[in-house]
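Students often ask why we bother encoding 3D structure as a string. The short answer is that it lets us treat folding as translation between two languages. Here is a chain of 515 residues written in the first language.
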Amino acid sequence: MKLIKINYTNLLLFFAILVTATGCTKWLDEQDVDPSNLSPDTYYTIPAHAEAAIAAGYAQTRFINGGAGIFANNFSMLEMVTGTAKTETGQNTDLNNLLGLSYNGDNVFVGNWWNGAYSVIAQANLVLQKVPGITPMDEAQKKRILGEAKFLRAWSYFYLVRLYGAVPLITEPVEANSPQLTPGRSSIDSVYNLIVADLTDAEASGLSWTDATGRASLGAVKAELAEVYLTMAGAPVNKGAAYYKMAADKAYEVIQSGQFSLFANYFDLHNIATENRGEHIFQLQYLGGVADNPNQGILLPNFKDVSAYGTEIGSNVPTLTFYESFEPGDLRAVDRQGFFYTSYYNGGNGALKDLSAPYLYKFFDVVANGTEGVAGTAVSSLNWPNIRYAQVLLTYAEAQNESGAPNQAAWDALNAIRTRAELTTPGLATFNQASFRTAVLRERWHELCYEGITWFDMVRLKKVYNESTNGFDDFVGHKFPENTSVLAEKHLLFPLPTSEMQNNPNLRPQNPGYQ
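And here it is in the second language, the structure alphabet:
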């Protein structure tokens, strides 16, 4: 996918215009125009402007990996609160407060997720308002771009409603005199209604099943819609069996398409050569020198000299208890073959050395960090996963089971995940609905770990995986095994950012349990 540079004329007005672009695939020829003279009214005049505008929307999805103060990036917010992650650096107070479940609306991560999601929504709204008026323009191209914008808007609101509950529903660009500068909160049901409507429209927009450039595809839209239905079936919406059936049906469409497959080996999950294809349904796009992947140094062990990077942070690392909860023989826990590494090369390319702890190999860029006999570049182009086919398989298995009982297709989906991990799955006849549910949820915890999914599973299920018992505890009262933090009812939602509430009194009251 083309990577981009954005010029913002006024953040208050939520206006972003793409002025140049570069990357693997040309989306936009540079325009000989002074960007300071651009405005929404003068810019959206030719099809290339529409392509540039939707590219700007994709670029803003990278807020997930944006900086969150010293030695931390935003993605860690969804990991520190699961009990499966910890930090090896103590300098970032906001990160430590997440880990200790003592955060409030002043937390920089809380504000960054809010602002980042709304920045994507703002750009999508601009595309949806302005692109229809571009003439002449190929109608299929226009329809596709509008479908992509609706996907991005739904994608963003899906994060917001799960993180904060009732949030402002903004569906048009905001101007200086607009009442939407200080919007009130819309109900959770209203937000989900928009999400479903946008994704349904995106389904009908002529998108291809796959897109090797990194744009949203029909597969991404359907996979996201399956996850939305799965979430709506659980807390706090509690739509129940009917929505589990809808989730199963939508996920099965992706499975039956034959367009996606699990990689034969786990290395391809973080292999630049396999980006935007195979198992990767939707990724956040990076290109070294234009938009570097910012997470490599963050995820490395704290100054153990295992890479070409001069700064190794250890900001987000696995807990030992979670790492040890993988079944014996599970390939995902094998050093440098699955999701973790416990040894690596000195300086990134020297002698192999033991690290005495597990670290995340799932997102490890061997080109940037180095490997045996090959020095690293310290520049990463590795994309960041957002929707994987493995998630679709497990969503189908869970949803189908909850809408009736496990069937052969649900068992096949679960078995595909376990077979790749070199694990044996008990036969279908050995399961009932309850035991199959537990088996699938264990796989979601282990297969989808550290991908920003586990926290949302905890909230919709109101359950948390217990590494000691290999079962599931109630959310409220669950104690994290390594730091003794205890989940409370209030943690089912994050607080709204304090700064937003100070600027906009219509957002009050704050979510329960937060001051």
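Translate back mentally: The chain has three domains: 2-206, 233-285+389-484, 288-382. Keep this in mind for the problem set.
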